[in-house]
Amino acid sequence: MTKELHKASTMRRQPKQARSQERVHHILDVAEQLFIEFGYEQTTTRAIATRAAIPVGSLYQFFPHKEALVRALANRYFEQEYQIFVQLHTELAKADIATYVERMVNAFEDFAQQNPGYRAVLGQLIDLMTLTDASKFNEYDQQILVELADFFSRRNPQLDATQSRLIATTVVKVSNELLWLSFTREPLERKQLVKETKTLITAYLQTYQI
């Protein structure tokens, strides 16, 4: 979703060798599964190391504490979401705006539903964040903002750079918040809220002839 993550504070050191990268991914996979099974509070770094079949010291080489694991997992989700955006954004470059919004919202909603750790991890991240963190975008949302602003300005050349950026910011913030809210609702209400999100974003963009 839409929160600032600083890589320097997420991991103690970045893995460079393939073997170290594989170990980090394995640790994150195990941590994600334990957060799903037992929740953040009940999961310890020692339990993660035990399930991952590594010494706890090896875990601390990369992640100084449990919060760093949550932030790294969230960053991995954000990167996956960005790749979904890039692929679909390219595919829908010439589609009408209603189709663009429909397909894009569906893609992100499907991603969240297909990844059970998504809500567990991002929900905990929100609890860990400060007010300052919550007001910022993560690095992948920043990239989406730049690409959306450029996309909007190409669709309507009368929009200046500042307007395009503001519209892109509004779209990302509103869609993120409404989709996150939908995850807390029962299936029928969630479906209705997702539909309203599409209607809102489409109507908003159409007012700017995008």
TrEMBL record:
Domain HTH tetR-type: 21-81
One Pfam match: TetR_N
Region Disordered: start-end pairs: 1-20
Entry coiled-coil feature ranges: none
Entry-linked InterPro entries: Homeodomain-like_sf, HTH-type_TetR-like_transc_reg, HTH_TetR, TetR_C_15
Residue ranges for the DNA-binding region feature of this UniProt entry: 44-63
Domain of life according to the entry: Bacteria
Leader sequence segment: none
Database matches in SUPFAM superfamilies: Homeodomain-like (SSF46689)
Keywords noted in UniProt: DNA-binding
Entry-linked PANTHER family: HTH-TYPE TRANSCRIPTIONAL REGULATOR PKSA, HTH-TYPE TRANSCRIPTIONAL REGULATOR RUTR
Name of the protein: TetR family transcriptional regulator
